[in-house]
């Protein structure tokens, strides 16, 4: 389920580039959360799963959504503005390591032997694929900017830590049998409300660059359905039976899974670093399984 979630995020990100450029990162995220929240609540009411929610669970889900979805995503966008998507992506990939460490400290989960070796190969492969997965001529214009390096690194690591903490908070809830769709609905609603508050406060960064068109709307809707509705629900479902650390490791492989998708779409063979990173990631995944 964690690997399927990573595949959903990878495919969803292919559809996000045009919409995010049209709307801006914050507006794109806000619309995406609104659509995902609406779909999740519809599913939750249709199945009656919302009735299983209890107040202590809702409060923890709200806190998890605020940390992981709002603070984490906002910090990641800010890091990308300072470091560029490639370097920010490498640093954000450390969320898998944070998850393993926190799961060991607070949940008593341990990784030894081949599992530990597999974890190292997987995380290393993801980082190599991101860091060396593009040719020089394909680098984004942001990549050359050395400005605000320290604050960018801090924001990217903060984003990774928020992602790990929010995942760790969900593990006990899912082990208790919390419905994944209802849980995702609460977390998504929290992220949307907080993003809406940023807009209502009048911050320029939250405004749409261009008006929403039907084409962009459908791109956002498909992305929300894949990445946030299906992907996040699969992650919560995976946490019911899997270790939090391993779920985080498997779900972190989306940057590698997107490589063959990009190859199919743009007909350009990935760079050598992408091949090496993918090989290490597959080897690590095989050892973990």
TrEMBL record:
Q: Where is the signal peptide?
A: 1-19
Annotated membrane-spanning segments are 29-46, 58-78, 90-107, 114-132, 152-170, 191-210, 216-239, 246-266, 272-288
GO CC field: membrane
InterPro entries per UniProt = AA-Vitamin_Transporters (IPR050638), EamA_dom (IPR000620), EmrE-like (IPR037185)
Q: List the keywords (alphabetical).
A: Membrane, Signal, Transmembrane, Transmembrane helix
Per UniProt, residues of the EamA domain are 1-129, 151-288
For this entry, the protein name equals EamA domain-containing protein
Organism from which the protein derives? Alishewanella agri BL06
Q: What lineage does the source organism belong to?
A: Bacteria, Pseudomonadati, Pseudomonadota, Gammaproteobacteria, Alteromonadales
